[in-house]
Design brief:
Layout: E1 2-7, E2 11-16, H1 26-41, E3 47-52, H2 75-84, E4 89-93, E5 96-98, H3 100-107, E6 110-114, E7 118-120, H4 134-142, H5 144-153, E8 156-158, H6 159-165, E9 170-172, H7 176-187, H8 209-224, H9 229-242, H10 245-260, H11 263-277, E10 300-303, H12 307-318, E11 323-326, H13 330-351, E12 360-363, E13 374-377, H14 383-396, E14 402-405, H15 412-416, E15 425-430, E16 439-444, H16 450-462, E17 466-471, H17 478-495, H18 499-509, H19 515-522, H20 524-533, E18 549-550, E19 553-554, H21 558-564, H22 591-603, H23 613-634, H24 640-650, H25 660-667, H26 669-682, H27 693-700, H28 709-719
Parallel strand pairs: 2-3, 3-4, 4-6, 5-7, 6-9, 10-11, 10-13, 11-12, 13-14, 14-15, 16-17
Antiparallel strand pairs: 1-2, 7-8, 15-16, 18-19
Helix pairs in contact: 1-2, 2-3, 4-5, 4-9, 5-9, 8-9, 9-10, 11-24, 12-13, 17-23, 18-23, 20-21, 23-26
Bound molecules: ligand LOW37U6P.
Ligand LOW37U6P is lined by residues 20-21, 23, 59-64, 75, 96, 98-100, 122-123, 126, 128, 131-132, 256-257, 260, 273, 276.
Domain 3-hydroxyacyl-CoA dehydrogenase NAD binding: 299-472
Main location: other
Pathway: Lipid metabolism; fatty acid beta-oxidation
Amino acid sequence: MAQYSRISGSVGLITLKSLPVNALGAVVRQGIVDSLKTALQDPKVTSVVICGQNGVFCGGADIKEFGDSESGPPLIPMIHAIEAGNKPMVAAIEGFALGGGLELALGCHYRIAHSKARLGLPEVTLGLLPAAGGSQRLPRLIGVPAALDLIITGRHVTAAEALQLGIVDQVTDHHTVDAAVKFALSVAGRPLDARRISSYSCPPVSGDLDALFEEVMRKVRRGARGAIAPVACVQAVRAAATLPYARGMERERELMATLFTSGQARALQYSFFAQRAVSRWSTPSGARWDASAPKPVRKVAVIGLGTMGRGIAVALAQAGFPVVSVETQEKQLTEAKRAVSQMLERGAKRRGVAAPLDKMSYSSNIQAVADVDLVIEAVFEDMGLKKKIFQQLSAVCKPDALLCTNTSSLDVDQLASQTRNPELVVGMHFFAPAHVMKLLEVVYGPRSSPQALATAMQLGKKMGKVSVAVGNCPGFVGNRMLKAYVEQAFFLLEEGATPELVDSALEEFGFSMGFFKVSDLSGLDVGWKVRKEDGLALPGVSTGPSARIRQGRRYSPLGDLLCQRGRFGQKTGSGWYQYGKPGGRVATPDPWLHSFLEEYRAQHGLVPRRIDPQEVLERCLYALINEGFRILEDGIAAGPEDIDCIYVFGYGWPHYRGGPMFYAAMVGLPKVLERLEHYYRAHPDVPDLQPCSLLRRLVASGSPPVQKWKEAIKKLHSQL
Ligand SMILES: CCCCCC/C=C/CC(=O)SCCNC(=O)CCNC(=O)[C@H](O)C(C)(C)COP(=O)(O)OP(=O)(O)OC[C@H]1O[C@@H](n2cnc3c(N)ncnc32)[C@H](O)[C@@H]1OP(=O)(O)O
């Protein structure tokens, strides 16, 4: 709702009231329209202030209402009525003014912001554009280049930047509504024509306007990789720059109509709520986020200052934690100190703050962690080494200190068993570079206490990560699913594809790089080491029927064969592609590799066939999705939202496709099932293609929407 009152004798005060962010749902809009009418009709009222309750102006349109049929007064005429009003309207912005919230403020004649407020038009992140006049008013107010920046990126600006850009008229450190009321009294009776942004022309740009838009559009299309909203945002701002306001608004409406009902908008809005849903974690044993209080964490230690340890230490210091970093090799320690300081300084420069160098301390002695509340061990992926460190930590640390391991695949429970308090051990799987990547898998073992899990989840949140609680199994969620995808990519090469064909299908889908380019970038030796440890990459079995079978199932030794030839990817100058020189970055197709594949197929009696991009996508993505269903069935992830956040924030899954499980729901579960059945019939020696029973049961129960899977899975489990 919106509440109306008259204060200071002559100021009408409209307060938006809709917890938690005063979103502009139907009831709030009705409240604003009614209040406005009262204020405009009351002769005692000479000016109006619009504010929000609880220190928050407005978080924009109510995203939860987007799927519903529209009710209540529409937003655009409401904002027009505010702007057309014959009494000065002042927006009092506290907390945030985002999306429709900022558009409402732009409809007002003046804007006063608290110094801690943030403003922005983040619609693009929801697959939309600012379609309540934002794409037309903002460029008119602050100019085309600045408006393009804000609208295309959706970034939030501080009140200080908003003042500098000219979005707000005044910034206050004091009580915002009081300041706005004082301001409203001071402008009462002033002429308003010059304050109505819709009447402005965009300020002229230096240089050629067409050239500017062409350049921006080129950049946006390249960066968007198939996302349609950023492109529509540029088109809408172009309309503002080239058309009268009314025609610009028409263009804004047309563009929004296409976006509003698009699959991309649905996916991005699903992802918005999924990110929030994963913080409400639960485990199969009944532990829950709302019943488990985290332990206070004041000081943290990182063990091992290789690439991962350095990134983790930087992320912790940036989040404000004092960090003790332990590295036993003196040379590595000296290098790491310099590298960490540089990373902190670069990050601080980018964010315009002081580098938190004082948060860091270093030692070569593990005794230095004796007083910390939480340790993150980040040494090499070597179970023997990690076990030794956990034994030492258990002896050195405070008895109630949380012991976390940064591992991408090792058994967290085995490490827990090395300690006095296995309930205080959890996995924290960071993604490289750890100070940049948003994802954190928090791995609970069978003995991890709910409090330990809650503490690690909260630490991840404070580090700015999307933290997802997952159960302990080989590869956890992300890497377990990836295995099925990678395997299909190898098999497709055996059957006739090239790395270029597979990669271009995946890039066309929206991944920034196809699997083979990623593999060259991260180094083929990484996977080779794991396969050797798992007993898969065997020396000396390069011919005969057993060459392509391991542990009773189809296996492709192609990656191992490249590694045996020293082709580790970019670092050696060749892998699945060639790079000209060791360390080269530009992948070019490699005729040697093509001949090698031909010889390999001939040697193994494989008859190459034409493989189309659709098969690449179906084989790679549906195998991965199938493993996702197994993970849900096993209770390793609590819901599809958890898997989708892991893939969007850790594995480069195109955000506008929501994540693998959302994608499966969009494709249609019956279709995914039918294609998996088809491929499994063709490849009965590939168990990853055998449709998982949960997928079958969801299809049999009518393929509920992805938002209902959690419930459906619970029900299906209880029927077993
Ligand atoms: C042709 C048709 C024309 C129609 C025109 C339609 C115009 C649309 C323009 C828009 O306004 S689109 C929306 C633009 N706004 C946003 O994108 C803001 C989204 N929200 C945020 O970024 C953050 O929530 C926040 C506002 C910065 C607050 O962050 P904080 O960390 O403090 O809290 P959260 O945990 O994120 O949120 C709390 C709670 O509130 C829910 N929520 C937030 N924003 C909205 C919203 N705009 N609508 C509905 N609900 C919202 C959020 O989901 C959380 O609830 P949950 O239950 O935990 O999920």
